[in-house]
Design a protein that fits this description.
This protein is an alpha/beta fold and 468 residues long. It has 15 helices and 16 strands. It folds into 2 domains: 232 residues, Aldehyde Dehydrogenase, Chain A, domain 1 (3-Layer(aba) Sandwich); 193 residues, Aldehyde Dehydrogenase, Chain A, domain 2 (3-Layer(aba) Sandwich), CATH 3.40.309.10. α2 runs antiparallel to α4 and α2 crosses α6. Bound molecules: nicotinamide-adenine-dinucleotide. Nicotinamide-adenine-dinucleotide binds next to α7 and α8.
């Protein structure tokens, strides 16, 4: 697919907006039919999708692709099909006594045309869940997938072209320049998923048009482990969260905060857990994913080198392949907060371990840094858990596990502060991409209508009544 020009982008948006205004908002039947069409087309191309993902990553587990991209995508479409009717219903609101017998209600209106910008790490689902949300909300959409996953982006283009006319949904391709021109378009809403740095640019461009944004960004998501908790249980679940897609997951556990007395136990259990997940090694494995490209492979090796040079203990858990960008899991002990690995989102299979003496130290460590996209707590001590949750602010939380909050279709998903603005998934996605229009129908008579000229004693009586 050739990259688009800014003039093309404006043309597509104008066509979509004109079509939206001409046809009016789609009804429930239409939205459900469009969602079913999207799901059917995805399932029809299931094998090709998984192959495209493999082509883009060089090495990506086909089964993992089905588990982490296709299942959450299809399940979230199913959820929208089942619930969109309920979300669309006007919601009756309270009318105070002196406005009786009036009626008030809220209608969720589609906003019009939504611009969607997607990243490379889960290039299919992070493009198509936002698209399905836009459709459920009754909108038209323009979608720009990542330039770093050309095979999957082309597949997304084919899926959309096969089922939707361009004035309903259009896919445009290109890199940062196209992204910049795209986010400068006067959309009715922009849903961006990607890095915090680019998210700021998108917010800036959108502000010029007063376009509302939902920004799904990244960050360093901590794991806090309660003293004395079963390290085997923790290690299994942290390893799963860290090694899925080789750590190239926005909500991957980024680093671990463990009590100083448990550090050795955690390190031992983590190595055992990693081995259990990948007994056959990593290079040419059908269960393990490569780092997307040379840039990120070198960046990750740079983080490891920097930690080593500054006195950390680096434990490599297998062989790598520079040629195919396969990086085996790495555990880093004796980590100092100043090290590069603690300065940026890792986005790879590298796990730094830091220690704390008491829970307040762990809380202070988290609060001294940008608000994380996800927070993980392992422990059975309810008081400590509640204290951590009350005293920190982050995106979603999973307790005694990792990643799984993401696939709870009825939970909003989104960050806060540096990790994002707004949320989607479930009802919150529908709300984000619709306008809450309040409607008031005035009754034949109500006390407020008496407050009009000519004013007199009766007006004063009513005014005094309402000022109580
Ligand atoms: P990125 O920000 O580099 O790119 C994301 C998208 O923005 C791409 O389509 C890119 O072409 C486009 N883009 C680039 N420059 C642009 C500009 N100036 N204006 C508008 N668009 C522009 O992110 P990435 O490297 O593709 O993805 C990794 C990042 O995304 C990580 O930080 C990760 O945590 C985050 N992420 C967040 C979520 C989430 O749901 N919160 C999910 C996945 C990834």
């Amino acid at each position: 697919m050739p990259d688009v020009t800014p003039a093309d982008l404006h043309h597509i948006l104008d066509r979509q907006r004109a079509a939206f205004l001409h046809a009016g908002p789609p009804g429930l039947k239409q939205r459900r039919a469009d969602l079913r069409l999207l799901k059917a087309e995805i399932l029809k191309r299931r094998i090709d999708i998984v192959r495209a993902l493999k082509t883009d990553f060089g090495q990506r587990s086909e089964r993992e692709s089905a588990i982490v991209e296709l299942i959450p995508l299809v399940q979230s479409i199913n959820y929208m099909i089942a619930h969109v009717g309920c979300w669309m219903k006007p919601e009756r609101r309270h009318v105070s006594a002196y406005f009786q017998c009036g009626r008030a209600w809220v209608v969720r209106q589609p906003v019009g045309v939504v611009g969607i910008i997607a990243p490379w790490n889960y290039p299919l689902s992070l493009a198509l869940v936002p698209l399905a949300t836009a459709i459920a909300a009754g909108n038209r959409a323009m979608l720009k997938p990542s330039e770093f996953t050309p095979a999957t982006s082309a597949m997304i283009g084919e899926i959309v072209q096969a089922i939707f006319p361009p004035e309903q949904v259009s896919v445009v391709t290109g890199g940062g320049e196209v992204g910049a021109a795209f986010s400068a378009l006067p959309f009715d809403h922009i849903l961006f998923t990607g890095s915090t740095a680019v998210g700021k640019k998108v917010a800036e461009a959108a502000a010029r048009n007063l376009t509302p944004v939902t920004l799904e960004l990244g960050g360093k998501s901590p794991v806090v482990i309660e003293p004395g908790f079963s390290m085997r249980r923790v290690a299994d679940r942290v390893a799963f969260g860290k090694l899925t897609n080789a750590g190239q997951t926005c909500i991957a556990p980024d680093y671990v905060l463990v009590h100083e007395n448990d550090r050795e136990a955690f390190a031992t259990a983590y190595q055992a857990a990693v081995k259990k997940l990948h007994p056959g090694g990593y290079v040419a494995s059908s269960d393990y994913t490569a780092i997307l490209n040379q840039h990120h492979y070198e960046r990750l090796n740079g983080l490891i080198r920097d930690a080593e040079e500054h006195g950390a203990q680096v434990i490599r858990m297998g062989s790598d392949s520079a040629a195919s960008h396969v990086l085996a899991p790495v555990l880093i002990l004796n980590v100092k907060p100043e090290m590069a690995v603690m300065q940026e989102e890792i986005f790879g299979p590298v796990l730094p371990v830091l220690t704390y003496g008491n829970l307040d130290e762990a809380i202070a460590f988290i609060n001294a840094r940008p608000r994380p996209l996800a927070l993980y707590y392992f422990g059975d001590n309810r008081a400590d858990r509640d204290r951590l949750l009350k005293r920190t602010v982050s995106g979603n939380v999973t307790i005694n596990g990792t990643l799984m909050h993401y696939v709870q279709d009825d939970l909003p998903f989104g960050g806060v502060g540096d990790s994002g603005i707004g949320a989607y998934h479930g009802k919150e996605g529908f709300m984000a991409l619709t306008h809450a229009r309040g409607v008031y129908r005035q009754g034949r008579f109500n006390a407020a209508t008496l407050l009009k000229p000519p004013f007199g004693k009766f007006t004063d009586t009513i005014t005094n009544l309402l000022l109580r």
